[in-house]
Every structure is written in structure tokens, then in C-alpha cells.
Design goal:
Layout lengths: L1 H20 L15 E7 L1 H17 L3 E7 L2 H10 L4 E4 L11 E15 L9 H8 L17 E5 L6 H8 L10 E3 L2 H8 L5 E6 H4 L5 E3 L9 H6 L5 E8 L5 H10 L2 H9 L3 E2 L2
Parallel strand pairs: 1-2, 1-3, 5-6, 5-7
Antiparallel strand pairs: 3-9, 4-7, 4-8, 4-9, 4-10
Length: 277
């Protein structure tokens, strides 16, 4: 019995010594991944449609950076930046006197033009005719060279960025407008005009230029094109701005600078807006 115990102890000691002589397995720590960074934009649908495309090559060139574009309205973009819930606001109009707390950069220009249905034979309207239509003094297309059918006036709701330059140019008071339909978004304007040859509205040149059922009328004899917007010939224009509440962080500034690069400005042109560079 003593011999058996000694053998067992010797065997156990041997195993213990063998295990001690072998190096323990070293588990390498996980490879650290770069922390993801996010830039949040909020505001104008018009600008959002541009920056969503500009964000794609930027994200490709900057792995780990996510550009989150929330399209809603200009007023919301300003509110979100002021409240700190967005890094960048998208403002589709000139900045106002009470918005000096915001830093603005113009990334593109846009024109606002009168829109009618493609089947409407009217090719142009004078400024006074447009005023008379929107104030209810002209109610039938036959009065301006069109077919004998009532005019369906589509207006834009309060707060829409396209409204202000339209009213300012034609010197129209909001209270003087006699509208049959009031819409907020451009998509609503398009839906209200499709299939209605008697309709008239106004919208961004860049947004509706490629919609087959709608045609843009010249304003004061000037054709609504990006070239005429860029050159200043077209009379109703607006800047498309990105704004920050404070001097932007390095990451936000880099994205804004990229939006003004040659690559990004080519995207602006592809989207049917007027580049600024």
C-alpha cells in the first residue's frame, strides 16, 4: 500500500511540475475600434436633399463618421440648433436680424418660380397677372390667354421658406392672398398639381424642375434656370444656408468646408441647384 501511495504522489508531482514548466496561454485584448462620430443636421427639405447626397462621399472618406440628415422645415432647423439637439441647421432663406446668434454658410443658391401644369398652354405671365391671380382678381385662365377654366390657386403655408421671397418680390401681403389650396411641403404641392391642368403654384426651381407634369414659368421675362440663378439674372432667389449656434467643432467645420468643395459643389449642380463655387 505504501508503494502505491508513493507512486501516486510522484505522478501528481510530475504533472504539477510539468504544468508549471509550460507557459500559460496569453489572450490578446480585443483590437480597439475607432469611436463612431455623428453629425446631426435638421431643417429644410430642400437643403436636406442636397446634403444627403454630399454626405455619402464624405462618410466614405471618413470611416466612423455618420451624417444624420433630418428633413423637416427651416424653422425647425433653427430651433434644433439653438436647443442643442442638432449640430447644423438647414435654412433655405436669408438670415433674419434676430438670428445673429447663428453662424451661417451658404452652400448653394435656389430660385423660386411660378409653376403650372404641363398641359396648360400659357407660356408666361406678367408680374401684375400673377398678383391678380393670387389676389382673386383674375379667376379664369381664359383671361390670360389660356383655356376657359377656373384657376386653382395653390399657396404655401406660414413658415415655409419659399413663401417669404415670393411675397417680397411681388409685394404681396399675406392677408391679400385668395388661395383654394394651402400646402406645406413641396411634395404636397406636386400632388395638388398633378392631374389638375387648372392649377398654379410656386416652388423651388431645383425641386420641381425635373417633375414631368409641372412646368416653370419665366419671371419678368427671365427663364428659371440654375445658370440664371447663379448669375443673378433670375429675380427671385434665396441662399441655401447651413448654420451653427457657436463656432463649430473641428468635425462639423470639416463637413461644412467639404460641402463647399469642388466635389460637393458638383453634387449641388447635379441636384439642379446653383453652386456657389
Amino acid at each position: 500500500m505504501q508503494t502505491v501511495i508513493q507512486v501516486s504522489l510522484s505522478f501528481a508531482t510530475c504533472l504539477w511540475l510539468q504544468s508549471c514548466s509550460q507557459p500559460s496561454e496569453v489572450i490578446a485584448p480585443p483590437t480597439p475600434t475607432p469611436s463612431s462620430k455623428k453629425i446631426t443636421l435638421s431643417g429644410s427639405h430642400t437643403i436636406g436633399s442636397i446634403l444627403s447626397e454630399i454626405a455619402k462621399p464624405y462618410e466614405t472618406a471618413h470611416p466612423g463618421v455618420k451624417i444624420d440628415v433630418k428633413e423637416n422645415a427651416t424653422w425647425r432647423g433653427i430651433a434644433d440648433v439653438r436647443q442643442g439637439t442638432a449640430d447644423i441647421g438647414m435654412v433655405a432663406r436669408s438670415m433674419k436680424a434676430d438670428e445673429k446668434d447663428l453662424l451661417a454658410s451658404t452652400i448653394a443658391k435656389d430660385g423660386i418660380s411660378v409653376t403650372i401644369h404641363r398641359d396648360n398652354p400659357v407660356k408666361s405671365l406678367t408680374n401684375q397677372q400673377i398678383v391678380n391671380i393670387y389676389t382673386g382678381k383674375i379667376k379664369n385662365w381664359q383671361q390670360v390667354g389660356g383655356k376657359n377654366q377656373p384657376i386653382l390657386v395653390i399657396h404655401r403655408s406660414e413658415g415655409v421658406a419659399a413663401l417669404e421671397p415670393f411675397l417680397n418680390y411681388f409685394k404681396l401681403e399675406k392677408s391679400a392672398i385668395r388661395a383654394d389650396v394651402v400646402v406645406t411641403e413641396t411634395d404636397e404641392l406636386v400632388q395638388a398639381m398633378v392631374g389638375k391642368p387648372q392649377a398654379i403654384g410656386f416652388s423651388s426651381i431645383g425641386v420641381v424642375e425635373s417633375i414631368k407634369d409641372i412646368k416653370l414659368l419665366p419671371i419678368n421675362g427671365v427663364t428659371p434656370t440654375n445658370e440664371n440663378v447663379s448669375s443673378g439674372k433670375f429675380p427671385i432667389t434665396r441662399p441655401l444656408n447651413v448654420v451653427t449656434k457657436n463656432p463649430p467643432s473641428a468635425l462639423v467645420k470639416e463637413f461644412i468646408d467639404f460641402s463647399l468643395s469642388q466635389e460637393a459643389q458638383a453634387i449641388v449642380k447635379q441636384k439642379k441647384f446653383a453652386p456657389v463655387k
